[in-house]
Amino acid sequence: MRKYFGTDGVRGRVGVFPMTADFAMKLGWAAGQVLGAEGVKEVLIGKDTRASGYMLESALEAGFSAAGVNVALVGPLPTPGVAYLTSTFRADAGVVISASHNPFDDNGIKIFAQGGHKLTDLQEQEIERWLEVAIDGGMTCVSSDKLGKARRIDDAAGRYTEYCKANLPGQLSLNGLTIVVDSANGAAYKVAPAVYRELGANVISIHDTPNGVNINERCGATSMQSVMAAVVEHQADLGIALDGDADRLMMVDHTGCVVDGDELLYLLAKDAKAAGYTGGVVGTQMSNLGLEQALAKLEIPFLRAKVGDRYVMEQLKANGWRLGGEGSGHLLSLNHASTGDAVIASLRVLTCLLQQGATLYQAKQDMHKFPQTLINVRYTAQEGVDPLNADNVKTTVAQVEADLGENGRVLLRKSGTEPLIRVMVEAVDASQAQACAKKIADTLA
From 55's CA, which of 26, 118, 253, 318 has a CA 20 to 30 Å away? Predict the structure, then answer.
């Protein structure tokens, strides 16, 4: 069990333990102890546009230096960009300072191993063991002649931009397309518009003026209203929305309707199948039933992992597959990127559309999404008591599942951060999904 690392690194409210400068320094030192023992000599550190990133960057730098590990600073850059540059600069590990889609007053620290892959559970557990040593006052410092050195890489964004552009086949161009790009005032505010523009698109860039506190604020992949409106206003061909660290992708068709991660994953899987891909697709417990049914029609195997892109990645590696993702927009195409990369995923979708001569609206018609209702039910935690095992709850769920049959789905899961049970129901129509979810929620209340 991990005490500080969640599904996506360490995350919390800035200024409140563990997201403090003191903790970040000790985390850097602890990571340096573990990774240094594995032969790590240099760590590459990137961040998004939150004001707190400067504080945490300096603290991490101090911790790694004290452990004798060199640091290369790349400044604001998408999480997948840091993962990519960790490999290309031959750094031994990478760190991203970001809370992804969270508000500006949160922040987080993610650590990548060599090659841009997330750390294993065992590595994170070992880092936490050293972290406890530091918190208990046992943090040490190497001798002055062995302190880690720091350097700044000035052309990191340009290198990543070129890498992204290479994911559109050379015979294709975005000439003639008008694309609205919402960068969420986040890490991709320079890179993303530049990529599409340099590939020939007429780019209308919105939410690209970060000020340290407006990241994800009513914009980006978690708040689609402005990009939807901009697509309609400018009569654009489509819209692209990223989150604060650009590892989530949501899109908008020319009518102003959202095309989510499940629909985009289907488009990528269908195209891959046509190109000879023989593997399957990994979604999560929250992936829409419509995705599963659409893939079944194409005879593409489908598995569900726990919620979180790290668990999707685990299933992909275990099965030797290359495609996976979440409805929230984390998309994994391991032939093209080692982690979720929103810009590259969007270019893969654009490649599909250009090769088919189809609009995004036309391409998504093959998949029918089931209306989904999600209700959060708060409960009082009692030792030894699991509300999900109550007889009346089990009976109600069984009744709902029998009523839905193959035309719906029920999922109950506990939140990992607060005493909530998330009740999710999918059904043929929205009113049925709402009624069934409420029936279960009332039983839990």
Answer: 118
